[in-house]
Write a structure and sequence with these properties.
The structure is a homotetramer of 408-residue chains. The first copy, chain A, is of the alpha+beta class and 408 residues long. Chain A has 12 helices and 19 strands. Chain A has 2 domains: 283 residues, Zn peptidases (Aminopeptidase); 115 residues, Alpha-Beta Plaits. Helices cover 35% and strands 27% of the residues of chain A. Chains B and C meet through helix 6 of B and helix 6 of C.
Chain lengths: 408, 408, 408, 408
C-alpha cells in the first residue's frame, strides 16, 4: 500500500502552518512514518520530528526537510490554494501559505523514505531524517540541536538537503562552496515623538524618519559595496501609526540582510547601523533607535568532495543537461547548523519546480524575473509533476551515493 | 445633590471608547441627564445623544460636546490613566486613550447643563445639547444630521462648542473667521510585486516605493505652497509587510491633509496625487496606486458678529488677559456641519488645560513645542482644575450671552 | 530738456552689471545727476553714489534705489533683452540680467529727482538719495554705511524705498510692520572621498550625500516649522564633479533661508545645521561639512506711523483700489540697514509691473504662479508703462509727504 | 644612449593634457620615437600617433598606450605633482592630473619599444604601436579607426594593452573573458522653472528634482539588478544654479553606467530613463528631461586562447605568485575597438602600482578601499619602481609571446 504522495502534498499545501506551529504537519508526518514502520521521535525542537532507519553497518546519512509555511496571502488560483490563517509572533492574525515549497520538501522526503525502506536489501548503513520546524525564522535547526538531536541520534557522516526553486522542473542545481548566502534578520525601532497630525512641528515624525532611513539604506548596496560583491539590504516590513491624524511615537522596520561571508556581514551591518543612527540624528531624535538581531544564518557551504560525488551521481542518473551550476543563491538556510555542529560535510541542492515550456518561453522573452514567481511570492506554485517525483529521486540517489552498497 | 464632575471626568478618562463605539460613555451621559431631569434621545447618529431644555420664549442655543477617544497608548503616568483596548475599523485590537480631551468636553457640558438648569429662572429660551460621536473620524456630526437631529429638535439660532487645548489653564482662545483648518483623510495603497527578500530584482518593492513617496510628499509643503499659506501633509500611518524576508506586494499609507480653504484643498490634493502616481511610475509599478478619501472636513469658520459677542462676554467675565486670539489652528473639526446645515452662526473656542506655571516656564525657555504635550500625544493630560471649572463656565457664559435674560 | 526715462531704462536693461561691478551704471547715474544739477559723490561703498538736494529748512528724506543685476540668462525675448556676461565672485563667466528690476528702480529714481528738482519751490527740506550697489549680495547698504554715508550726508528723518514686483502695473502694495523676511545665505561644502566612477565603494560619494541632504532639508519646512509660520529653505545652487566617470571629493551647496524674525532664524539655522551634519555622518564622511554664512539680512520692518502716512497719501493720489496690503514678502532686502543704523523710520513699498489685463486673466484662471514671471526669473520683464511713470510718482508722492510744504 | 624613463614619466606627469588636447604629450612621444629610429605618423585621430617596427616575416602585434589625463586637482603631495590647468569641453578652466596613470602607460610603452628595437635580432614580425588620445572620453580609439589607422598600418594578428592599477607593484592581473565592463556616459538635463529663492511655489525647483532623481537612481542597483550581477550607476557631476537666492531653471547631471554585457546595458538604461522621467513628472515638470549618450563603450573581452598564452608567459617570467586573476573590473576601456574592428584577439591586463608593503598592511587591516587611492582619485600615484620597469617588461614579454622567435 504505497503512499499517495500527490494527495499528501495537496493536503499539506491546503494546511500550511507558521514556524513552530507545525503541529498538524507533524501529525501527518508521524502517521506516515508509522505506516512505513520507521522509528521516530516527535517534539524534537518543539514541533520537529527526527526519524531513524538502522540498516546494518555503514555510513550515517542525515536527510533534512523543513516544514513551516509563511504569512503570505496565496494568490495562485490553484484548486488547492490555501485559505488558512494563523497568528504571527506579534499576535496578529495573518494569512498563511506554503509560499516556499516546504510542503513539497516534506512530501518528497516521505516518498524517498518509502523508497529507501522498500530497498533496504540494496544498501546498508543508517538514515537519520530531520523534519525541521521554523526554517523561516532561522531558528528550527538550532532548536533541534539544542534539544539534543545530534546526541540522541547517530552522528552524521554527511548531511543532505534540498529546496524546490524556480528552475525548470526536471532540473537540479548544485555547486561546491558557497551555495547560499549568510543572512541576518534585524528589527529596527525608530523613536520620534507623537502628536497631532495637524501639528508636525510639535512632534518628531518617525514615519519621515523611517522613509529617509529606507532611502538612505539603498546607498549601502548602490555605493558602498563593491559592485562585484553580493549584498542585499531588504526592508521587508514597516509598521507605524494607527490613524491618519495622529503622528505616532515610533516606527518599526524589519530588515533582511544577505552576504556571502562573515567579512561582508560585518561591513554591511556596520553600514546599516551607521545609516540608522545618522538618520535618527537628522530628525533630531531624542531617543536612540534600537537594532535587534532576530536571527543570524551562516552561509550554506557545500563540501567540495561530497558535492562532486553527488553531482556525478545526479549526472549519471538524470543526464548531463539536467544538472546545472545555479550560482550562489542570495537566499539563506539554517540547514548548515547540522553540519557545522557535527563537523560533517554538507550538500544542499536545488531542484526545479517550473513547467519547462513556460520557463523556456520566459527565458526566450527575457522575462523570467517578471513571469516566473519566485519563492515567497503569493503566486509561487511548483508544478506537481515531474517536480514531486524528482524530489523523491534526488533524495534517494544522493542518499544511496553515501550509503554502503549491499551488493558490494 | 450636585454632580461630582471630577469623578465623572476620571471615570470617562479611564474608559475611553473609539468612534461610534461610545456606548458606555453615552450611558454615563444618559444617566446624568436623567438625574438633572433633562429630556433627551439616545442613539442619534448611532451612538450620539441629543438633549433639550425648553424654558419659555427665546433663542435656541445649540451646545455641542464630542465623546470619542483615540487609538493611542496612554503614557501620562496618571493614576487614572487608561489601559483600555478597542477594535479599530480594520479589526485590529488597539490601545485607546482620551488623548484629545473629549472626556473633558463631556464632563464640562454636564456641569454647564446642571448650572443652566439650576438657574432657569434667570434666562428664557431653548438649549439643545448634542453629545456627538465619532468626531475623530470626521463622521459623527454628519451621522447625527443624517439621523434628523436638525429636524427632530428646535432649529438653532446659534451653535456653540469648545475644545480643550495646550493653552494655560484659565485662558480661552477665540477668533472671528477661520478658526480651524479644512482637512481630508486619504488612504493611499501602493502596489508592487511581492517576492523573496533575497531577490529584490524579481519584485517591485512597495516599501521603497512608499519611502520615496513619503520623502517626495515633503516637497509639496516645502516647495509648492506659498510659504505664507498654511498647509500640512502628514503621513500618519504606514503598514507594509509581515516578515523581514518577504518583500510584500503592497504598502498602505494614511494621510492627513490640512488647508485653510477649498482653493488650497484642490491644489494640495492635485499635488499629492501627482507625487503618488509619479513615484509608482518611478518604481515601474504595473498597477496604479489607489487614493481613497476617508473623510473631508470643511474649515471651522466663526461667525464674526457672534464671535464678537462671545469674546466681549468672556472678557467681561474672565478679564481681558484671559482671552486671546489663538490664530488659526491646523486641526480640524466637524462641528461646523451643524451650523452649515442649519444656516446658524457658529462660535467655536479653545480653552486652556496646561498648568499655567509650567506653560510660562516652557514659554520662557522656548520649549513649548517640546515640553507641552499636544492633543493626540500619548502624554496629553489637562490639569483637572481650573480646567474643568472653566470649561463649565465658558459654556454657561456663552450660552447666556445668546439666551434671553429673564430679568429683562 | 527732460530726461528720456524710457531710453535710460532700456539702456540700463541692456547693460546689467553684477554686484559691486556697477561702474557703467554708476556712470549713467552720475551723468544724469550732473545734468540735473544735483550734488553727488561717487564710489561710496565701492560702486555706490550718494546725492543730496538741499532746499532750505525741513526734514531730511532719504530715498534709496539699488543698482545691481543678477547672474540669470535673460529669456524675455524683448528687443532690449540683455546678452551681457559677467564674472561672478568665484571667477566664472556667467550671463547677467536685470531679473530683479533694479534698472527700473534707478530709472524711476532719476525721474523722481528730476521732478523734485523742478518743483523745488513747492517744498523745503533735504533729499538724500543713495544709489546702492550689491543689494543682491546683501552687502551694499552695509558697504555704504561702512564708507560713512550716514556721517557724510544729512541724517535721515525717514528712509524710503521701493521695489517693482509682479503686481498689476498701476498698483502699489505696502503694509505696516514686517514687510519682507529676514534671510541668510549659506555656503555648505560636503566632503567625501573622490575616485573612479566605476568603483563607488572605494569612495565616499559627495553627490549622493548632497542629494540626501537636499531631500532631508525639505523636512525642515514640511515637518519642523509651525505650518502657520513663514519659513523657506532653498538650495539655490549645487556644484560637484567635472566628469561622469570621476566621483568628486566634494559638493558645494548654496542655501537661501527666510524667516520673519530672529527667533525663527535661530530655529531654522539650528535645524539646517543638524541635517547637514547628520547626512554627512550617514555617508560615513571623515571630514565634517563646513557651513559658511555669506550674508545675513534683517527683516524689513515698516514703521507703523510713517507707513500710515504714506498709505494715506498713496490712496489720496492713486485711489483706494490702487493701494493694497501685499502681505509679508518672503524676499529680503538690505535697505533697512540705513534705517536701523540711523534710528530713522523706514517705509518700503512694492509697485506693480505686470500688464493689468494679463494679471486679471491669470488671476481668473488661477495661474498667477505659473504665468506671471516673478523676480529673479529669466522671464521677468515689467511692462514699461505705466510702470515707469508710477515708479516716479510713488517716490515723489512719498517724499513730498515727509518734506515740508513750501506753501504752508 | 638609453631613454631616461623615470625622467620622461616625471615630465609627463607634470604636464598632463585633457582628451584630444595631448599635443605636448604627442610631441614628447614623437621626439623619443625619432631618437629610437621608429617610423611613425602624428595626428592620427586628431592627436594620436601610430608607429610601426617592421622586422621581417611574422605576426603583426599591436601595442596600445593611451595618453590623456583628467580634470582632477592633484593632491598627492608629490614633488612632481601637477599644477596644470586646462579647458574642458564646456569651456570651463579645470585642474588637470594624470589621475589614471596614462603617463605611466606612455612611458612604459616607450621603454618597451626601446627594448624591442634593441633586440630586433631575437624576433621577427611587425609591431604597430598606437598612442591613443581621449580614452577618458571613450572616443580616441574610434577616432583613430575613423582616421584609417587599421587601413594605413599592417592589420593586427593580436591587440595588446595594459593599465596600471591599485594592485601591489610587481603583480600583474589578467583573466580570460570579460575583463572590463561595458559603459555608457549620459548627460541628463532636468528642466524646472526658475524664480526667486524666496518664492519656491512660483517655480519648479530643478535642484530638488535632481536630488530626488539621484536618490531614486540608487534603487536601480539596490533593488532592480540581481545582487549577483555587476552594475554601477554613478552620478559623477551635478551642476545647477549660480546664486543662493535664485532658483535656476535647470539642472545637469552626468552619469556613468557600468555593466558586463549588452543585455544588462539595455536593462539599466531602461530603468535609468524610467526613473529620470518619473521624477520629472513628480515635480510637475512641464518640459521633459533630455538624456544624451555621450559615449558608449563595449565590454573589454579577453580572447581565451591568447590570454592563456600570455598568462603562461607572465607566470614563467615573473613567477606564479605574481600573476593573479583580478576579476572583472567595473572600469571600462575603448581599447577593444581595435580588436573588434579588425577581428583580432585582444589581451588587456592590469599591473600593480602600489607599494607592496603598504598594500599588505592595508589588506591585513581590511582598509584597502580606504587607504589605497584608486584610479581617478586626486591621490592616485603609482610608486615609480618597480612599477615602471614592470610595465616595460610586461609589454616586451607579451609582444615576444606573439612575435616569431628569430632563433626558431
Amino acid at each position: 500500500m504505497a503512499l499517495d504522495l500527490e494527495a499528501i502534498y495537496v493536503d499539506l499545501h491546503r494546511h500550511p502552518e507558521l514556524s513552530f506551529q507545525e503541529t498538524r504537519t507533524a501529525g501527518v508526518i508521524a502517521q506516515r512514518l508509522g505506516e512505513l514502520g520507521i522509528e521516530f521521535e516527535e517534539g524534537v525542537g518543539r514541533t520537529g520530528i527526527a526519524a531513524v532507519i538502522r540498516n546494518g553497518t555503514g555510513p550515517v546519512v542525515w536527510l533534512r526537510a523543513d516544514m513551516d509555511a509563511l504569512p503570505v496571502p496565496e494568490q495562485t488560483g490553484l484548486d488547492y490554494a490555501s485559505t488558512a490563517r494563523g497568528t504571527d509572533p506579534a499576535g496578529n492574525e495573518v494569512p498563511v501559505m506554503h509560499a516556499c515549497g516546504h510542503d513539497m520538501h516534506v512530501t518528497a522526503m516521505l516518498g524517498a523514505l518509502e523508497r529507501l525502506v522498500a530497498t533496504k536489501d540494496e544498501w546498508t548503513g543508517t538514515i537519520v531524517t530531520v523534519f525541521q520546524p521554523a526554517e523561516e525564522y532561522g531558528a528550527g535547526a538550532q532548536a533541534m540541536i539544542a534539544d539534543g538531536v545530534l546526541d540522541r541520534f547517530p552522528t552524521p557522516d554527511v548531511v543532505l538537503g534540498q529546496h524546490v526553486t524556480p528552475l525548470p522542473s526536471g532540473t537540479v542545481g548544485v555547486r561546491p562552496g558557497t551555495q547560499m548566502a549568510a543572512s541576518d534578520g534585524l528589527t529596527v525601532t525608530l523613536f520620534g515623538r507623537g502628536g497631532h497630525g495637524s501639528r508636525p512641528h510639535s512632534t518628531i515624525d518617525p514615519i519621515v524618519m523611517a522613509a529617509a532611513t529606507i532611502m538612505r539604506l539603498q546607498t549601502v548596496v548602490s555605493r558602498e559595496i563593491d559592485p562585484r560583491d553580493v549584498a542585499v539590504v531588504t526592508v521587508g516590513s514597516i509598521h507605524a501609526g494607527l490613524k491618519n491624524n495622529i503622528i505616532p511615537a515610533e516606527a518599526k522596520l524589519e530588515l533582511s540582510l544577505r552576504y556571502p561571508d562573515e567579512t561582508a556581514r560585518e561591513r554591511v551591518l556596520e553600514k546599516v547601523e551607521r545609516v540608522v543612527r545618522a538618520e535618527a540624528a537628522a530628525s533630531g531624535a531624542v531617543k536612540q533607535p534600537t537594532i535587534v538581531t532576530d536571527h543570524t544564518l551562516p552561509p550554506t557551504i557545500n563540501d567540495v568532495d561530497a558535492t562532486a560525488r553527488i553531482t556525478a551521481a545526479f549526472r549519471r542518473e538524470f543526464g548531463e543537461g539536467a544538472v546545472v551550476d545555479p550560482g550562489m543563491f542570495t537566499g539563506s538556510e539554517d540547514v548548515s547548523w547540522f553540519a557545522r555542529e557535527s563537523g560533517a560535510p554538507l550538500v544542499y541542492w536545488f531542484w526545479g519546480g517550473v513547467d519547462p515550456q513556460k520557463y523556456a518561453d520566459a527565458a526566450a522573452a527575457g522575462t523570467i524575473e517578471r513571469d516566473i514567481p519566485t519563492n515567497h511570492s503569493p503566486f509561487f506554485a511548483p508544478v506537481l509533476q515531474p517536480t514531486l517525483n524528482r524530489g523523491v529521486e534526488n533524495l534517494v540517489v544522493a542518499a544511496r551515493e553515501f550509503l554502503a552498497d549491499a551488493s558490494a
